[in-house]
């Protein structure tokens, strides 16, 4: 069953929380509503209920658990993004694995975090992905790296500058921040990102980071 929360006025991001742990969902909703720029407008506890609630409320952002009683969160994400592709989705998991992160990248999820992470980090990520950033927790990237190196041979050839941009992408920074860090224009940085995506046969920056990690291009965790 889904329950709708009261909304606030202004430009606060409208957020739906989908998690089968009701206490966790309620605590997270309360934490979001304490922030002036964030507003939890509804909660659901399964794939079907969550998708229906998102179709009803059209939230700006969804915080979604990976494991749900009637399926996994990626199934919900696929349905939500098929109908509302501009929706930002941050996925939480208590049991990270390489396959889930790979699927998340291909689906178009823009944040993937451990469920037991700090609330402050989650709030920062939620604000970041609103502006187009993507984030994968470093601990999850490290796990990807350790698993990926065992199975993948030599990858595509990236220039030194492309590798620098790729590492900054993996840190979860946006293009403007990366451009300033490298002392180049935003336009030039976007060009490097486009080249990286083409070489790694990726459609999104998150998908590129996943592919690069599997190929061992990001070095040691």
Automatic annotation (TrEMBL):
The organism's superkingdom is given as Bacteria
Q: What is this protein called?
A: DNA-binding NarL/FixJ family response regulator
Query: Which spans are transmembrane here?
Result: none
Gene3D superfamilies attached here?
A: 3.40.50.2300
- A GO molecular function held by the record: DNA binding
Return the PROSITE patterns for the record. HTH_LUXR_2 (PS50043), RESPONSE_REGULATORY (PS50110)
* Domain annotation Response regulatory: ranges: 14-130
The residue ranges of the HTH luxR-type domain are 151-216
Keywords in alphabetical order: DNA-binding, Phosphoprotein
**CDD domains in the record, alphabetically?**
LuxR_C_like (cd06170), REC_NarL-like (cd17535)
Q: Which residues form a coiled coil?
A: none
